[in-house]
Amino acid sequence: MKILLIHTHYQFRGGEDAVFEQEQSLLQEGNQVETLVFHNKNGWRGALQFFFSVWNLSAIIKVRRKIQVFKPDVVHIHNWHYASGPAIIRTAKRFGVPVLLTLHNYRLLCPSGSLMNGNTIFTDSMYADFPWKAVQLKVFRDSVVQTFWLAFVVWFHKKIGTWHLVDRYLVLTDFARNLYRSSQLGIDPAKLLIKPNFVQRPEQLRQIRAGHFLYIGRLSDEKGVNILLSTFQNSAYKLSIAGDGPLADLVERASSVSSNIHYLGTLDRYGVQQGMQTCTALLFPSIWYEGMPMTILEAFSL
Q1: What range defines the domain where residue 37 resides?
Q2: pTM for the complete prediction?
Q3: Residue 208 within any structural domain of the chain
Q4: pLDDT at 12 over 80
Q5: CA-closest candidate to residue 8, choices 68, 51, 53, 47
Q6: Which of 142, 150, 172, 287 is the most exposed place for a label (fewest CB within 10 A)?
Q7: Is residue 207 part of a domain?
Q8: What is the mean pLDDT of residues 285-299?
Q9: 204 in a structural domain
């Protein structure tokens, strides 16, 4: 089978990137696999990408050319936000190619992508035709304009039927499937299939426990990083933090004033495995509706 994987990388590497790479590796066993990757940019280039995400002609042309040359049997999209945009779904369908879309988060249900407003679960957008309350609350990047535009992109493609063109939606858990089923998005429930994340069994390093707690993941509000820092500051327990994200500067400042908090930066796969096998416990203080975190799966596999 010829499979085309399409993915848009966020500015900060996350679990979706790891899932995309592992799936690519697995599918190459017995299949022909090619990838088409987009990258979200910073500054004015990123602003243009975001604005044109409603109908990105550049991305459409790239997908069209890839399909014409590779002639895939199926297209699997992992993330369209925001450098490629949803219109690439319509491009694939014009060639008669089945489309799978993995729902790693809740972007189609709320502009926040996490069903969060600040540190609070926010589900109002799920039941609204257009999420005006989310726009008022600035749930995406604390911006009325950006929240409105992202909401408009999803709403526009709902109105022109783009989301109905997807042949199968892959969700990570039964909980996520129920959220999508109960929303106003209007996806056929039969199209929502559960496909859990997975990890390859790592090498056992036989490390000695070092007596510290460990957090590995995206450094952002929904991951509970603020809660983690406030808990360990001025504490006798040692905490090591690895990862990157919007709160990286906050973590660096905390590590500079609290001798028991250590910021490790971004770790490679070996570093993650080593850290998990030497820590007392892996901490996971998320406050949003998690999907199926790769970090927890990796910890279970050790």
Answers
A1: 2-194
A2: 0.90
A3: no
A4: no
A5: 53
A6: 142
A7: no
A8: 92
A9: no
Cβ–Cβ < 8 Å for 3, 73? yes
Q: Which H/E stretch holds residue 71? A: none
Reference 56, options 101, 87, 79; nearest CA is: 87
Q: Cα(202)–Cα(225) distance, rounded to whole angstroms?
A: 27
User: Are both 143 and 34 inside the same structural domain?
Assistant: yes
Q: State how many domains the chain has.
A: 2
CA distances from 60 to 35, 88, 157 (A): 15, 5, 15
Q: Is 28 left (phi over 0), alpha (psi -120 to 50) or beta?
A: alpha
Task: Let me know whether 186 and 239 are in one domain.
Answer: no
DSSP letter at 202 equals P
Q: Tokens representing 75?
A: 């297209």
pLDDT of residue 281: 94
Based on the fold, state whether residues 297 and 161 are members of the same structural domain.
no
Beta pairing partners, 4: 34, 75
pLDDT surpassing 80 at residue 24: no
**Token representation of residue 54:** 């409603």
Q: Cα(139)–Cα(126) distance, rounded to whole angstroms?
A: 14
- 13 pLDDT exceeds 70? no
Give the pLDDT of residue 302: 82
